[in-house]
Amino acid sequence: MPPVPVIDPEAIESLRALSPDDGDVFLKEILTIFLEDTPVRISELRSSLTNGKTDLFVRSAHSIKGSASNVGAAELRAIAELIEHHGRQAGSVGTESMITELEAAFARAREALQKFLTA
To answer: Nearest-CA neighbor of 67 among 95, 88, 36?
Structure first.
């Protein structure tokens, strides 16, 4: 299977198409919300792992998956989906390396998306 791209350019274009005449104001607003909210969700994921709160763990992974999908953060979405699935099947045990991978994917997505905020 080919590697998953950090950012899906088609998703960015879809967001732009929602408000084509605003000079990317809407796109920048959505990306800013994503970049501010995702670290909070990752923190919830880590906290729920530590506290053994499986429901919150699964919900946090699901939230990251959904918001990543909305902004085209394809790699992040794929990892969050794996974590969510694992959480539903086996709980949060054994996911430490997956969360570390998720954090690295978010860092790559953040770097790629920042370019749209400064353009």
So the answer is: 36
Q: How many domains does the chain have?
A: 1
Angle between helices 25-51 and 9-18 (to 10 degrees): 120
pTM over 0.90? The answer is yes
Task: Give kind and range of the element (H or E) at residue 118.
Answer: helix 96-118
Tens of pLDDT, residues 52-110: 899 999 999 999 999 999 999 999 999 999 999 999 999 888 899 999 999 999 999 99
Question: Which residue segment(s) compose the domain that 82 sits in?
Answer: 9-14+22-118
Q: 4 lies in a domain?
A: no
CB 106 within 8 A of CB 72: no
What does residue 15 show for φ and ψ, rounded to 5 degrees? -65, -40
